[in-house]
Amino acid sequence: MIYEPYFTEEHEQLRKVIRNFVEKEVKPFVEEWEEAGEFPIEIIKRMGDLGFLGLRYPKELGGQGGDYFTSIVFAEELAKCGCGGFPMAVAVQTDMAIPPIAEFGNDDQKKRFFIPAVKGDKLAAIGISEPNHGSDVASIETRGRKQGNEWIINGTKMYITNGSRADFVTLVTRTSDEPGYKGLSLILVDLDSPGVSISKRLDKVGMRSSDTAEIIFDNVSVPEANLLGEEGKGFSYIMWELQGERLISAAASIGLAESAYDLAYEYAKTRKQFNHPIANFQVISHLLAEMKTEIEVCKELTYATAYRFSNGEVPSKEISMTKLAAAQMAHWVADRALQIFGGNGYMADYPIERIWRDSRLNRIGAGADEVMKEIISKQMGL
Ligand SMILES: Cc1cc2nc3c(=O)[nH]c(=O)nc-3n(C[C@H](O)[C@H](O)[C@H](O)COP(=O)(O)OP(=O)(O)OC[C@H]3O[C@@H](n4cnc5c(N)ncnc54)[C@H](O)[C@@H]3O)c2cc1C
Prior knowledge:
The protein has twelve helices and ten strands. It is globular. The protein has three domains: about 110 residues, Orthogonal Bundle (Butyryl-Coa Dehydrogenase, subunit A, domain 1), CATH 1.10.540.10; about 110 residues, Butyryl-CoA Dehydrogenase, subunit A, domain 2; about 140 residues, Butyryl-CoA Dehydrogenase, subunit A, domain 3, CATH 1.20.140.10. About 50% of the residues lie in helices and about 15% in strands. The mean pLDDT is about 95. α9 runs antiparallel to α10. The longest helix has about 35 residues. The strands form three sheets. A four-stranded mixed beta sheet has the order 1-4-5-8. A four-stranded antiparallel beta sheet has the order 2-3-7-6, covered by helices on one side. A two-stranded antiparallel sheet has the order 9-10. The chain is α+β, with helices and mostly antiparallel strands. Flavin-adenine dinucleotide binds next to β1, β3 and α12. The site of flavin-adenine dinucleotide has 21 residues, from β1, β3 and α12.
């Protein structure tokens, strides 16, 4: 089914190509990557060579020149690989760490950071969260002080996806004594710089094929030229970045939910109890109908909001609604799917338990459910 007017025949061709890649080059290895706690770095290069990391970016920046919906297709299809971790790590690269460079960076920064990331030659991370500051981005403490032609950076970043292996991080840093959001800037930091250390590789409930780190910056010297855009504009830049991140998170939630639904559907038709496939119990068939309905509702909302975003609008209320609804839906669908699997659903041998664990994160990352509700209710005049 083609969802008009959002997707065209070309998008569906792209969907097939990505689906084929996922089936052949990702799915068979997910188990191994989950076990290892990371995916092999070579797959980033492979995806760069295939053009997947720059689908919607201009050709002169190494991208494929596609529209925003090519990224939606990519996020949905990659999320069907059988886990949430690897797709999340890739989304950090394509839709979180590098969009601010494309939008606010200069030619030199695009050459040094953006193009290598799109080509898969560099792995990127985004550094917002800190041990004591997550939802309240305006309060972060990591400090950059100007010294000659350099920024000297001190602080700690927490829960950084790709953090233990990334080549660079798009870092939210306080660069003046101005309190709150006014003092923040974005600085691109090479993670092999002296003074950068990975203090912890974090152990997680889910998303295990993606590595997550705490990173310490101890007097890290960064060239002045790595300041992204204007000094003091970091908060507005990162709030802009979060809008795209939330839409891609919604698309990934949809992909994850669809894979949970597909597994539950097949299982319900083959698993027999009381001499009948369990799908014959009305309570199960109606549950599947409800799961499918919730997925479709979120698809329509996501596509409609992404359409506005792709046409230059930044409808933050609707983006927050989309992210909230899709994240809640995905975890709800995964939970119901696990129920349909019964005891098998609770076993590590069946893929549904991983989707259930992984889908939980989407209600916390990229802005927790409660933060989305705050944004929405404020814009409702409450
Ligand atoms: C696996 C994983 C990967 C991540 N990757 C990255 C990454 O790559 N880069 C990065 O910078 N960060 C990353 N994060 C951090 C993530 O963005 C934060 O966890 C998230 O923003 C919430 O911040 P917090 O954990 O500090 O929770 P807190 O801000 O301490 O909030 C705790 C809870 O309080 C409630 N709450 C908070 N604020 C409000 C409010 N205004 N109104 C009502 N309730 C509220 C919510 O229920 C929230 O869940 C990652 C996190 C995880 C778990």
